TrEMBL record:
Domain of life: Bacteria
Membrane topology: Multi-pass membrane protein
GO CC entries: plasma membrane
Main location per the UniProt record: membrane
Organism in which the protein naturally occurs: uncultured Anaerotruncus sp
Broadest EC class assigned to this enzyme: transferase
Protein name: CDP-diacylglycerol--glycerol-3-phosphate 3-phosphatidyltransferase
InterPro entries: CDP-alcohol_PTase-I, CDP-OH_P_trans, CDP-OH_PTrfase_TM_dom, CDP_ALCOHOL_P_TRANSF_CS, Phosphatidylglycerol_P_synth
Gene Ontology BP term (one): phosphatidylglycerol biosynthetic process
């Protein structure tokens, strides 16, 4: 297994630790530990793609598992966000529905021997999601420490709106770009 694929697996392995720190007070400043774990996991997303392209180590495993690892990481965060009040359920439902849709298209394509790699719209969506998740965790931690100015919460909602818009756009882009798999 090459280094980029190992980094993808590390991202998946970090998910339970992220959730544990985010949802418990296991350690002092547990939310900051969650933020650190999420940031490290997010960085592995950038790093595995960079190394795979640079060293020409792009594999079908990586094309399938890299976006799946991203989906698992972000989905874990979003489900936790509903429970702790950082995101309404309808936002999470839109995001997760898009992920199921794109994954279904990829599975149909894989059944026909084709691999659909993440495109730019999906990468922008993922990057924006990861920024929003990091910001929301930091905001939640700070809100537990002090009263926060309303503009900080406004930025949270603006990032959430950007994520929803990019999620819908990239989902439509995948559907339209791969409509041949629906024609059968």
């Amino acid at each position: 297994m090459n280094t980029p694929n190992k980094l993808t697996l590390i991202r998946v392995i970090l998910i339970p630790f992220f959730v544990l720190f985010l949802m418990t007070d296991l350690l002092p400043a547990s939310q900051l530990w969650a933020l650190a774990v999420f940031a490290i996991a997010s960085f592995t997303d950038f790093l595995d793609g960079y190394l795979a392209r640079r060293d020409q180590l792009v594999t079908n495993f990586g094309k399938l598992m890299d976006p799946l690892a991203d989906k698992l990481l972000v989905t874990a965060a979003l489900i936790c966000f509903v429970e702790i009040g950082l995101a309404p359920a309808w936002v999470v439902i839109i995001i997760i529905s898009r992920e199921f849709l794109v994954t279904s298209i990829r599975l149909v394509a894989a059944g026909e021997g084709k691999v659909i790699a993440a495109d730019k719209s999906g990468k922008y969506k993922t990057a924006t999601q990861m920024v929003w998740v990091c910001y929301a965790i930091l905001l939640q931690f700070l809100a537990g420490q002090m009263a926060l100015p309303s503009f900080l919460w406004g930025l949270h909602y603006a990032l959430m709106a950007a994520v929803v818009i990019l999620t819908v756009y990239s989902g439509m882009h995948y559907v339209l770009g791969n409509r041949e798999f629906f024609a059968q």
